[in-house]
Amino acid sequence: MKSVKIIIRICKKTSLSRLYNSSFILILLLSISCKDSNTINSINNSKLYSNNALQFDGIDDKVDLFLKPITDTWTLSVWVKGNDSLWNPNEAIISNGWATIKAWEQTPLSIKNGYPTVGDSLKATYKLDAEWHHLAVVNNGIENTLYIDGEIAAKGRGGKGICPSFIGANDSDSFFNGSIDELRIWNIAVDQNTIKKWMYSPLKKNHKNYSNLLACFGFDDEALDATDISGRFHGDIKKQYSSTATSNTPVYIRNFNSAFKGQYMASDYISLPKDKSVFEGLNNSQDDNILKVLSWNIWHGGVENGEELGRQRIIDIIKASTADVILMIETYGAANLIAEQLGFYHYTLGDKDNLAIFSRYPIVAQYPSNFKGFYSIGAKIKMPNNKEVIVWDVWLRYALPDYTMEINDPNYTVKEMIDGDMNYAVSDLNAILEKDLSVYATDKNTPVIFGGDFNSCSHLDWTKGTAEAGLHYNKEVDFPVSKIMMQQGYKDSFRELYPDPVKYIGKTWSPLYNYCDDFRIDFIYYKGPKVMPIDSRVIDQHPDQDQMFPSDHAGVLSVFEIN
User: Which domain covers residue 476, as residue numbers?
Assistant: First the structure.
């Protein structure tokens, strides 16, 4: 504590310009003992935040939440304030967005022409003005009850689950024009008295339903990614990725709501747990016989976190992976920047095209698809040991309806999953194998590494054993896409090294959206002489784990020894 006092005294006597001098600050920091560092951490942890809200522009602002479905009872509560009293026909407060099935309430809370509304059927009898109001929706499994400022405003039949995926929008529409604060999401029907008791103050651990809290966004810490105080989730503050209407995302503002008393402290926020780094053990040392291949769908050109921030996070992750070759999907305009930042060769059909191949080593042949360039491209690279390798990048269409969503419906069958694959992914894969690989990969002595976003799962994952272990919704599914790859002589690099799908799930869909806990839909296959996988791992972290992962797909990195 003594050195902290010394720093404070020095700061009082030192000009601001000198304090900004990095060497001076470094000297001060080096003077602090470990004991004093703990004291400073304690001081920071007791920091009292200002009462803030998040303001939306009604044009393209939103927050992605990535929460799991709540299929039984649930409660949403939130403070809202319009930027004016001129309400649009439909302004979403909380919505499922595109994460939806028939069994769910599609928009659990919105404002239609000024009237708070649940779904399409339950609406308040009076409009909101432009002041702060508290809204809550409670589903007890039978009926929904809508509260305004703690009082019942409407009641009607309910019982549907929800998947609260967005704040302030219904994904790409129904944008909210106003401010939002204190969003609380519960997996229990909170009673009216408890709602009224806690609506006016910050949420604390002595709330009687705290153990049923799924997420609470108070917005007081003004974090880059909206922070859930319970430490379970980040929310991605963004504008609609395809919008050119504005350049700004939702912004933090001071909340002068006189009805809400108190602020959060830093100690109220539970930190997200740090996982073991997925980059551990990787290094940039070059072995002439080693080829590290990363397959990754970067999600709409990597701009979902913002064009600059999102793409920088993509580049950070690729560098940390130490990959030699990247099979990229949804590249969409990012290829030149990524190649320049990596210092890699690259091949793509066009600046804004879907697929791109990046290589640390020379690309000695380029293979445009004879089927469809959006789905398939290839290249031949030359390794330092003079071994030539064909690398192939693919995107297959996903089944409609999309079973990664529909599987949340208990009535969705195994046959429907297989039929969807047969209609889309199987058709695409057969065409790629027949029209592309059979033409370009004719030398059996040349290894082929074949990866991408298959939008299909594997029969090696959805087994009797995984079903008995409670994975994959207890379903055993003989997926045809992965079986075709096996029949063509390809091996699944991840599953070759980790044959137990119960112990090693390898989830790639999705590191963000939590309604799919155990889906592997991104793969790296291989075949050919003298090629052997020696490592394979899922890349689902930023090297700085405090930063949000920028894609809805995890990457797959496989390390091959090729002699």
Answer: 290-562
